[in-house]
Amino acid sequence: MIDIQRLVKKFDDFTALGPLGFTFDQERILTVIGPSGCGKSTLLRLLSGLEAPTQGRIRLDGETISGPNPLISVAFQEPRLMPWLTVAQNVELAVWDRPDAERKEAVQAALVKVSLTQFADALPKQLSGGMAQRVGLARALVGSPRLLLLDEPFSALDPLTRVRMQDHLLEIVGDDGPNVLLITHDIDEAIVLSDRIIVLDGPPAQIRRDLVVDLPKPRKRSSREFQEIKELLLADLLPERIGALEEAA
């Protein structure tokens, strides 16, 4: 589905990313983690077509991405809702160019996916943080994208709401939802959700580890297998911590 080859992104003399390459096809959820400033958000902006690569290319189903693509949708860290519009109207913004009947049907279907049909006429100020984030997801889903890009979508939520949203994302993706590429700093979140995890290091962003997470879902965070994967990822992200633990032992 997505094929990235020799991708490089420079800002003047600063190389933010690459060369980097990987393919993304079979996995339902691919998560990219890495330290702050390593190039995760740059990668997402390149995939979304919001930035153009300096070198290399990104292909979706064999076609080079050269700008925003209707088959690729993005949900950001903040839901970015228009405060004067209702929930339904905020979702409708993403399909404004469709005929009326088709647009309303798509909005209704998207609100069903995120369990917000009863709040269609509510204003953003009447929503909790988790509900506002679900509106953002609905807006990203309303156009039936093939690939959904999520940039730290749950980081501003309290811990319990965050867990609920993680579970809800798994329900949305299911067997017939879009493939998801998720950017997060949360290792537990990455392991809970992902079929595959890519660890970036940088700048410039380079792949440090490419890991298939072969655990049945839903995943138990306290399980030995879960904790083993967590320690493996921590060793990539915080090698000094592992060294300190080895010295203490």
UniProtKB/TrEMBL annotation:
Domain ABC transporter: 2-227
Organism: Uliginosibacterium aquaticum
UniProt key word Lipid biosynthesis: no
Top-level taxonomy: Bacteria, Pseudomonadati, Pseudomonadota, Betaproteobacteria, Rhodocyclales
GO function term, MF aspect, one: ATP binding
Protein name: ABC transporter ATP-binding protein
TM ranges: none
Database matches in Pfam families: ABC_tran (PF00005)
SMART domains, sorted: AAA
Assigned protein family: Belongs to the ABC transporter superfamily.
Keyword line: ATP-binding, Cell membrane, Membrane, Nucleotide-binding, Transport
Superkingdom of this protein's organism: Bacteria
Gene3D superfamilies: P-loop containing nucleotide triphosphate hydrolases (3.40.50.300)
Keyword Glycoprotein belongs to the record: no
